[in-house]
Each structure stands twice: as C-alpha cells, then as structure tokens.
Design goal:
The protein is an alpha/beta fold and 500 residues long. It has two domains: 284 residues, 3-Layer(aba) Sandwich (Rossmann fold); 140 residues, Isoleucyl-tRNA Synthetase, Domain 1 (Orthogonal Bundle), CATH 1.10.730.10. It is built from 19 helices and 15 strands. It has a six-stranded parallel beta sheet, with helices on both faces. It is elongated and about 90 Å long. The two termini are 48 Å apart. It binds ligand ME8. Ligand ME8 binds next to strand 1, helix 1, helix 7 and strand 11. Monomer.
Length: 500
C-alpha cells in the first residue's frame, strides 16, 4: 500500500488561529482526504510551535506561565481544526515529551557528525520573525514585516555548517529529487543558494523557554531549528521507530511562501547532515491580503475562522477559502463577497442540483433508481482524469473548478432534456436522463468529499450509499455505482440560501 505523509507548518501559539492558518490546514486536509480515498495510508500532521522568545514574551504579557499560556492557545487551534473537520492523524506540540526526545536525538546526531560548531554570534535578531536578520534586510532600520527595530545580539551560540550542504541541495533541486513548488519558488531558492548563505545559529543563550541543547547546559535550541524537527518527531523520531520508518520522508511539506527558506534550505541541510532522506516536495502557496490590505492586528482585519464557521458552516468555509485564487499564487480574499459566492456556487450549484435531481426521482419514479444508462460515462471519466491530475499538481483551485464543471454539465443536461416534459411524453428517455443525473450526483459527492466532507456524506446518505467508504476508489469512480431498483431519499436543503 502506498503511503502519503503530509504536513502543515506548526503555528505559533502567541497568535489566535486566523484564516491564514486555516487556509494551509484546509488545503492539507483536502490532499490528505483525497489520498485516503485513493486507498493510501495517510499520515497528516499539524500542530503548534510553542517555544522561543516571542511566545515567552506573549505569555508574560498575558500574565501567565509559559506552559499554561501554550496549553490554552494550542487548544484553540485544536478546537477550530475540529470545527473545520480537519482530519489530522496527530497534533504535535513542541512542548511535548515526544518532541523533546526527538530533538535531543537529532541534535546529538548533528554534533556527532561534526555539522555543529561553537562560535560567537553578533548581529541582529527580530523576535517577531524569530529570525536572525541582516542590515540588508531592514527598511529604514526596521524589520519590514514587524516594523520594529531588531535586537542587537551578542551571544555564544552553536552554529550549523549550512555552507557544507548547499551544493548538494542545489544538485537535488536541479535534478528534481527535491521538488520546490511552484516553479517560481524553486528559482527563488536556487537564487538564494547562488547568493551564498551564512551558517546559522542553532541555539540561543539569552532565551530560557525552549529545549536545552543536549551538549550544553546554558543554551536552548533556536526555535526554528526545533520547530522544523516536528516533521520527524511528530511521526515518532526518537519515540516510535516503526511509525517513523513507515512514513518518513514526507511526501509534501505545505506552507506559505513566508517560510520557504527554512523549509527548502535549512531543513534539507539538517536532514542531509543527519543522514536522513529529504522530503519529496516543499510546496509554498501564496500569501493573501484581505480586501487588498495585509492581514494584521493593527488594521483590525484579521478574520477569525470561528466566526466564519458560525455564519457559513464548516464545508462552505473550506470551499470559500480555497476557491478565492489559484493555489500557489498570491491573492486577495474578498470576504464581503462570501455570501454572493455561497449562494451562487453552493446554494444554487451543488445544493440545487442535488435537490432538483432527487426531487424529480421522487416525483416521477417514486424514488427508485431506474435502469442503468451510460450516456455520461465517458464524459465523467474524462472529468475524473482532470480531477486526479489537478490533485497530483496540488492545484486545489483547479479541483474546485472541475467540480463546478461537472455541476454545470449536469445542470445544462437538465435544461436541455427537460425531464418534466419527458415525464409526459417519453418515459424511456426520462429513465435514461434521471439515471445519468443520479450517477452524476453520486460522482459529484465523491469529488466534493476532500473539499466538503460533511455535504459529501449527506449526499451519499440521500443516495443510500452510506457504506461507500468500504469500496475501492476504482469502484467508486466507475460509472454505474447506483444499482437500479434501489431507493434514494428526498434531501433536505444542503446549503440554505443566505440573505446578505
Ligand atoms: O511561521 N496567507 O508560524 P506562523 C496565507 N511557527 N497563509 C498564511 C497567511 C496569509 N496571509 N498568514 C499565515 C510560523 N499563513 C512557524 C512555522 S514550521 C516548522 C514553523 C499561514 O504561525 C501559512 O501557512 O507564523 C504560513 O506559512 C503560516 O501560516 C505561518 O504561521
């Protein structure tokens, strides 16, 4: 059985979950669900990043002990992922013993192979980014992202010999063994290697909230170095060899472009040093703005996914977020249009088609599936081909477009065939038309499943296919899954229309 291991970034607990975090996590969930449908053994990992100066400072500001602060905020992420039907197999917390054991093992290995050396760091650090920053990167003396002056640091640190591994990484990126996607991100990463990069510090002397370096009493692990290791500790490195060996290397690390350097350069270099295989794909999707503005607390335009789920329901939020712009490109989220899009794509789209078809089958055929007909079989097989290809390319917006295509194809067929007239004039043709429509609805339920799992299950329920998950993907995708003579149900509205 093929395995598929997919990860999201682990999110900082100093922030509440917002739709940026939700965007990546929902996208990962879509891919995880699709691969499970295909019969693969999937491990989907997400979690929270809980150590470091930034989190410690936020805890202090909130008047809480760091661990209590992390427990509370990590729980908020777990709660919203539940509401959004995120099907992660594990939720890794970097304050867990599981993580700590793996980090100690990994750092000891880096030291043993001579990839780490002691030195003095003197330079700048932006706590907002949790990143060492160069003069070159500043804009008017300020960190461009946090608009704050960085700290001047002078510390004894352990460094990682990044320069030793960069030529090998360039080679692996160029020969496709390490895929950096989309293509423009690959070029960006190769550009960084070409420019030359300094070795990086893997420890902090002045920070207390972290995992102690196993070979030093007074240093904690630099938060990024420790965070990246969640991808191996979360599947058992240092605690459960069997699971680790089964799932590593990751098939895809998913994130936004803001943290590509850590994932496409630092992380592969650390893995090479430790003698571990590299992830297959590092995919950096774009960054989005909200109604044209950067999402930020100070602008007050940060959207809370909880509020969206209250208004639209979990499935619709998943759909609305992922359909805003191409996956991989930067884009703008126009939350003001969500109601319009909900009504047009979901209430009038999938919702309307499903209820229209099932109501006609009830009215004209007493809710009994007619004799099988294969008119749509080839067309739908072609649509599946495009769908699988889009999933393989991680183009989730294309997947959504393909779902819409099947939806409009079926809508157009209803309009052309006019079953309400056929009911009076041509019963044989009516049977044919309704079989093709019913099967289309079944295929739509299947295609929709990774994006909108609740609605998909409901449609399968209306079609009396509650056991659909026991079937293989091939069986499900074949035309003719609905047996003639079986009963179907009358549906409740799947997406009740919303008023603005
Ligand atoms: O960077 N558009 O955590 P973080 C799209 N802890 N995606 C967005 C977004 C936006 N406007 N805003 C946030 C960290 N994201 C580290 C990661 S991993 C080993 C450690 C998403 O809480 C996107 O996935 O700042 C981005 O990469 C991530 O949130 C950053 O989350």
């Amino acid at each position: 059985m093929n395995k598929f291991y997919i990860t999201t970034p682990i999110y900082y607990v100093n922030d509440k979950p917002h739709i940026g975090h939700a965007y990546t996590t929902i996208a990962a969930d879509v891919l995880a669900r699709f691969h499970r449908l295909k019969g693969e053994e999937v491990f989907f990992l997400t979690g929270t990043d809980e150590h470091g100066a930034k989190v410690a400072a936020s805890a202090e500001q909130a008047g809480k002990l760091p661990q209590d602060f992390c427990d509370e905020n990590s729980a908020k992420f777990q709660l919203i992922w539940d509401r959004l039907n995120i099907s992660n197999d594990h939720f890794i917390r970097t304050t867990s013993d599981q993580h700590k054991a793996g980090v100690e093992k990994f750092l000891t290995k880096l030291k043993e192979v001579g990839a780490v050396y002691e030195g003095d760091y003197s330079g700048l650090y932006c706590t907002g980014c949790e990143k060492f920053i160069t003069e070159k990167e500043l804009v008017n003396g300020l960190c461009p992202d946090h608009k704050k002056e960085p700290e001047v640091l002078k510390e004894k640190n352990y460094f990682f010999k990044l320069s030793d591994y960069l030529p090998k990484i360039a080679e692996l990126i160029n020969n496709g063994e390490l895929k950096i996607l989309p293509e423009n991100k690959k070029n960006e990463v190769l550009g960084l290697i070409k420019q030359g990069m300094d070795d990086f510090s893997i420890s902090r002397e002045s920070v207390k909230w972290g995992i102690k370096i196993p070979f030093s009493e007074n240093q904690v692990t630099y938060v990024w170095v420790e965070a990246l290791q969640n991808y191996i500790t979360g599947i058992g490195y240092g605690s459960d060899d069997k699971t680790f060996n089964k799932f590593w290397p990751a098939n895809i690390h998913l994130m936004a472009k803001d943290i590509i350097k850590f994932h496409a350069l630092y992380w592969p270099a650390m893995l090479l040093a430790a003698g571990l295989p590299l992830p297959e794909v590092v995919f950096a999707h774009g960054f989005f703005t909200i109604d044209g503005e950067k999402m930020s607390k100070s602008l007050g335009n940060v959207i809370d996914p909880d509020v969206l789920v209250d208004e639209f329901g979990s499935d619709a939020v998943r759909y609305l977020l992922l359909s805003q712009f191409p996956f991989g490109a930067d884009g703008d989220v126009k939350a003001g249009n969500f109601v319009i899009q909900y009504n047009s794509d979901l209430a009038n789209g999938i919702g309307n088609l499903t209820s229209r078809v099932l109501s006609m089958v009830e009215k004209y055929l007493d809710s009994i599936v007619p004799v099988k007909d294969f008119e749509f079989s080839d067309e739908v097989a072609g649509i599946w081909h495009q769908y699988e290809d889009a999933m393989k390319r991680f183009q989730i917006d294309d997947v959504i477009e393909i779902i819409r295509k099947l939806n409009s194809f079926a809508d157009g067929y209803v309009e052309r065939q006019k079953p309400w007239q056929l009911a009076k004039e041509d019963k044989d043709q009516l049977n044919k038309v309704l079989y093709n429509l019913l099967e289309s609805v079944r295929h739509l339920a299947l295609m929709v499943y990774p994006v909108m799992p609740e609605v998909s299950e409901k449609i399968f329920g209306y079609l009396n296919q509650a056991d659909w998950k026991n079937k293989s993907f091939k069986e499900l995708v074949d035309w003719g899954g609905l047996e003639s003579g079986q009963k179907v149900e009358k549906p409740q509205p799947l997406f009740p229309r919303l008023e603005k």
